[in-house]
Structure formats: structure tokens, C-alpha cells
Amino acid sequence: MTNIEPTHRAEPPSESEGEQMEAAFQAALEQLPPNTGLSHAVREQARALFEVGWISGVRTGHTGPALAGVPLPPETFSAALVSLAARSTDSGPSIGQLVSYHGSQERAWGRYWVTGIDRQFSRWGREYVLYRLSDYRSGVFVTALSGVHAESVTALPQYWQRRTS
Description:
Layout: H1 15-30, H2 40-60, H3 64-67, H4 74-87, E1 98-101, E2 110-121, E3 127-137, E4 140-149, E5 153-155, H5 158-164
Antiparallel strand pairs: 1-2, 1-5, 2-3, 3-4
């Protein structure tokens, strides 16, 4: 039988490892286009993942190219963050976004603006999201549906919003 115990004791990142990681992370963020629009939560998730990779690289001696001024191409880091954003809890429709409603009230199917988001816990401890959807009439939002479940809406691509607003 193989011993699965590590041969070395785990150690938290040293001060210099943390400083190197932070500098590398900031350099990677600066390569992104200014309109990337990643939320704070996504950036913090990315920072944690970056820290694991960076410190693993430092401890195994594989950060030489990064330290030598040979950064990753911006699209590599951007693709990773966009993928992370898509998987984050913030990935549903946001306030002010145009969505398509296709829920149980067939008479109300159509396009609406999200004007409210309510996150709640079920009695079993699972989070669920309810949306308030509105029409835009005469310069004001008028609530059309409330308490709409996430599976009843689909966020419309950004280009729809520009065409219809």
C-alpha cells in the first residue's frame, strides 16, 4: 500500500510569494480591455485561483518566464476570467438587462427589462432567484411580472439591448 501522506508540511504563502503573485495578477488584469466589466466577486475568485497557480509555479520553479517579462497573451487570461464569470453566481440576468420571458403565464411571453432581483433561501437551504420584470412605457418602468423564477427568463444578447433601447 502506498502512503498518501505528504512528505512535506503544508505552508501558507510567504510574504514574497504573495507580493509576486499580486504583482503578476495586477499585470494580467491590466492587459484586459477596459470594458471587460467583471464583477468584484469574479475578480476575487480569479485572484484565489491565480494565487494557487502562481504559488505552485514558484514552489516548483516554473514561474521563470512570467518573472522574465513574458506574460500570457491577454486573450488567454481574458478567456479564463470570462469562463469564470459565466460559472459564477452573478451570471444570471442583471438589473437593467433585457430578457425574454417564457414562463407558465403564456399570455405574458415576451421581452421585458429586469427591474428587481430577489435572492432567497428555500426551507432546504438552497438559494433561488426571483425577478421583477417590467415594460418601459412613456419614460418609466411599469412592473409586468414579479416573482419570476430564473428558469423562466433568458438574458438577451447585448446587441438586442442596443437595437431596442
